[in-house]
Amino acid sequence: MTPLLIGVTMGDAAGIGPETIVKAFPQVKPGRCRLFVIGDAQEMKQAAERFNPKVEIIPFDDPLDLPESSPSQILVLDRFRISPQGYSYGKPQASTGELAYQSILLGAELASKGLLSTLVTAPICKESLHLAGHPFDGHTGLLAHLTQTTDYRMTFSTKDLRIIHTTAHMAFKDVSPLITKKRVFDTIKIGYQHLQDLGVEQPRIAVCGLNPHASEAGIFGSEDMEQVLPAIQQAQALGWDVVGPEPGDAVFIQAFKGKYDLVVAQYHDQGHIPGKLMAFDSGVNVTVGLPFARCSPDHGTAFDIAGQGVANPINLIEAIDYALLLAR
Q: Is the pTM of this model over 0.90?
């Protein structure tokens, strides 16, 4: 059987992406898949020299012709160079934003053409993207733009639980107008289909209310009774196992104990705070709804520790493991 092919964008060079890559790749069991990095081989060589001298960087330039490699070698599809002004660790800057952007563009192109089983993206800095002239909200919005996808959702995933978000990267004042029956139902539907694709035949889904205590029958707002509940009822009418609206301060502990396969969070922090509290080192960010499988470590560039050699690669390893699950 041909090994699954996974491309990993190198992320923001001023962060911990390259460091975690040179630490993580040798820990992936041989034979499970073929991995390669999309980015700048020169920068990856510097990362290897600094953070894992036992690995060798092997540049190549044709995604249809991967060289043979050993577990101690990391293949890099070498298409880009950091801009002449260079960069400094630990801060947003246009040069690293542009490199990250170009790597994502190529990764999306390869995945869209079916040349990758899954695309894994190392962390980027949104401010660096903006400084480079690319005003996206991060990977999720950028990949949706590149693939002209309108119906997609951010999902915080572990092996045991997924948290899908009705809204994600936006100011809190903009959240409430987007909590509509249609958008909530579409989120449930996308999550339900994602779980079925992963082999969960009858997904058990809990839907969070938007307001404290799921509005207490309208005492704390009208959105849960007027928008969230009708969306849940629409899903239930299809025979799906969906409950709610559930209070956000109670439902996640039930989910992590195994009561639900998926929780629908109405906004970013409602889902990400409990997710990262319970699974900070193993959480994976999955963009559900794209025409190809994409996931990422669910942490940022960690500018505060970038360049110090102390970054933990476990989250990237988990993302690669999840990429294999998505691909299969």
A: no
